[in-house]
Write a structure and sequence with these properties.
The structure is a single chain. The protein is an alpha+beta fold and 174 residues long. The chain is built from three helices and six strands, in the order ααββαββββ. It starts with 11 loop residues before the first helix and ends in a 5-residue tail after the last strand.
Length: 174
Amino acid sequence: PRGVPHDNGIPYAYQCAVRHAEDTAAPIASFELAERQERLERCASREHPKCLLCGQNPGGLRLHFRAQADGSVVAVFPCPASYQSYPQTLHGGVIASLLDAAMTNALFADGIAAVTGELTIRFLAPVSLGRGAVIRGWCERATPPLYYLRAQLEQAGVLRARASAKFMLREGER
């Protein structure tokens, strides 16, 4: 039923929003999408398996990013009350971290391990607690060793925050 949380704590409506985004994205071959997902998972587990946001860190968020047909990656975050700043509002530092993680995972989907060199966040509206948010990241331009990425966070179909960043290849990757 619509709006009822599932076992993972993410409301059904937000899970549907992610599936809708996947269904309406510019189509690419399913084998290519599966290959991007496999690269994302392999790169993430190799490069930062204990990441606070998307790794297997016991105290972490354990976000699961999924490669999309349009070349982006998407994850859903349930916005639990423990990440509050102002009353009923998700902390801005958490929002910044979510956007950064989306862009990092967008690079992982291309098999690229890079670090954030510059991050610009635009907070557009408060992010409510207890309601799922969809985080999306994508690469706009690559001029190795520099990569230009964007990310956004939506809640209830409304864009709440967006980011742009420059990433640089890690020392061992050059």
